[in-house]
Every structure is written in structure tokens, then in C-alpha cells.
Design brief:
With 188 residues, this protein is of the alpha+beta class. 39% of the residues lie in helices and 35% in strands. Strands 2, 3, 5, 6 and 8 form a five-stranded antiparallel beta sheet that branches.
């Protein structure tokens, strides 16, 4: 074997080495591209995370605000007072009016409501007489069926102590043999 042939490699081995070196360079290029892409995506990932945190904070604030508004509304409805039974009257004739004595001991009221039992009643108006001597004539004008209630009748001004309530009404259904009864309730 000649000296030259000892130091030289066959052509096929040299081709493998060249291909291997080219593949290494290609691998390094791909690896560098992946690293560069990863590094470029980091700011996007941080921005996305920051955006998600901001959205979570907004939702949390919205839920908190809704909860606070609901609690305030519930407290306001509770503060509006409860309904208290003030008295009742029976409708005996075809057209009538009755006075229901309330008295100072029941407290001050802001609104009234009438519940009807047994048969319909056709209401015209009511006159609220207060402990301080004042009166309010409040139009009702409407028929309330048996088992029904009138609309809520707001009293004018602030809550005041009622002396009596005079209700003007007529029987709503003459064919019904039962005598209707009305019950008066007041809200503090």
C-alpha cells in the first residue's frame, strides 16, 4: 500500500463525512431557528398572560359590584318595611263605605293595600285620616276579584301615623251570594 493511500480515505467515506457535516449545520440552523422563535414568542406569552390576568380582574370587579348592588337592593326592600294588618270590613249593601280605625299604636305608614275575600269589590276611593288631623283622598277606581289585592296605594309625604281609613266601595258581583270582605294592610 502506498503512502498516499494510507492517508487518504475512500471517496464514499468522504461523502458521508460531508453529508454528516452538512446535516449538522442544517440541524444547528433549525435549532437556532427554533430558539429564535421561542425567544420571539416569550413577549407574546407574557402579553397573553397579562391580558388574561386583566380580564380576570375585570370579571372579579364586575361580580363584586353586582353582589354589592344586590345586597343594597335587598336591604332597601327590607328597609321599605313589612305589611301590617290594620283591620277589615264587610260589604253588606250594594253601595257602601266603611271606616277602619287604625290608631297611633300601630305606627307610621307609607303605603296601604287592600286584600279582598269571598267576592269581588268595586273600589272608588279611600280617605286616609292622620293623627295630626290631615287627610288624603286617594283614588282607587277598580274592581278587585275575590282572593285578589289592590295595587299598592302610596300615601303622600313621609310616613305618618294613621287614625283611620274610610273606604268607599260597592259590591263587584251581585250574583254572588257571599258578602265580600276587605282587609286593610299598611306598610311602615
Amino acid at each position: 500500500m502506498s503512502e498516499y493511500s494510507k492517508h487518504t480515505k475512500p471517496a464514499s467515506d468522504r461523502q458521508v463525512e460531508e453529508v454528516g457535516a452538512g446535516a449538522e449545520k442544517a440541524y444547528e440552523t433549525v435549532e437556532m431557528a427554533l430558539v429564535a422563535e421561542y425567544l420571539a414568542s416569550l413577549p407574546r406569552a407574557f402579553k397573553e398572560r397579562k391580558r388574561k390576568k386583566a380580564m380576570f380582574r375585570r370579571r372579579l370587579i364586575m361580580v363584586g359590584t353586582t353582589l354589592i348592588v344586590a345586597l343594597i337592593a335587598a336591604q332597601m326592600s327590607f328597609a321599605q318595611g313589612r305589611w301590617v294588618y290594620l283591620g277589615e270590613a264587610n260589604v253588606d249593601g250594594s253601595g257602601d263605605h266603611d271606616t277602619i280605625r287604625v290608631g297611633r299604636d300601630k305606627g307610621a305608614f307609607r303605603a296601604l293595600q287592600i286584600h279582598v275575600e269571598k267576592a269581588a269589590i268595586n273600589f272608588e276611593y279611600l280617605v286616609a285620616k292622620f293623627e295630626n288631623g290631615g287627610t288624603d283622598r286617594l283614588e282607587i277606581r277598580g274592581t278587585v276579584p275575590a282572593g285578589g289585592t289592590s295595587r299598592i296605594i302610596d300615601l303622600k309625604g313621609n310616613a305618618r301615623e294613621l287614625d283611620s281609613v274610610e273606604v268607599w266601595y260597592a259590591r263587584g258581583n251581585y250574583r254572588n251570594s257571599q258578602k265580600p270582605r276587605m282587609r286593610l294592610f299598611g306598610r311602615h
